[in-house]
Amino acid sequence: MAELTTLARPYAKAAFKFALENSQLDQWSAGLGMSAQVVADEDAVRVLTAPQLTADEKANLIIDICGDKMTDGLKNFLSVLSSNQRLALLPDISALFDKLKADQEQSIDVDITSAFDLADDEQQKLAQALSQKFNREVNVSGQTDKSLIGGVVVRSGDMVIDGSVAGRLKKLAEAINS
User: HEC states along the chain?
Assistant: First the structure.
């Protein structure tokens, strides 16, 4: 997968630069996300890999499916990707674009998994603490996992903070066994 990310990076940077210059970060993020979903669909993959379709027809197919989410710049971008046979990179381009967007906006998406439902004030306190730690605005999404026994697990990208009872018990077991 590292190779796909390497191939996608220049496209994501170019798309981000264009969207930033035209104040269209949100529109591009939504359009790239929807396009990425289209090219990840099994039925769409069968159609998009058909040798009888031209590059323009493939790009237009995605544009037609996505509808109103497409700006003119994004339509041109999809045409360039299609003519370079890079439509399969759209999921990686979308993810890299969203990362660049979050860096620009000084925000970070955090997923909090807790053993029990967190009250709104608890979630806000946790978000504030994480905001200070990361020095960014924190967008929190939460879920419940009873197997944690207690505590929380915080995930953002490849960073994980395991403050769960289950995680602490696992660390203790590893320490005892080593």
Answer: CHHHHHHHHHHHHHHHHHHHHCCCHHHHHHHHHHHHHHHHCHHHHHHHCCCCCCHHHHHHHHHHHHHHHCCHHHHHHHHHHHHCCCHHHHHHHHHHHHHHHHHHCCEEEEEEEECCCCCHHHHHHHHHHHHHHHCCEEEEEEEECHHHCCCEEEEECCEEEECCHHHHHHHHHHHHHC
Q: How many CA atoms lie within 13 A of 106 on its CB side?
A: 7
Give all domains of the chain, ordered by start, each with its CATH number.
Answer: 2-103 (1.10.520.20), 107-177 (no CATH)
Q: What is the dihedral of CA 32, 30, 106, 89, to 10 degrees?
A: -10
The strand order across the sheet containing 107-114 reads 137-144, 107-114, 152-156, 159-162
* 0.85 surpassed by pTM: no
pLDDT tens, residue by residue, 115-155:
888 888 988 898 898 888 888 888 888 899 988 888 899 99
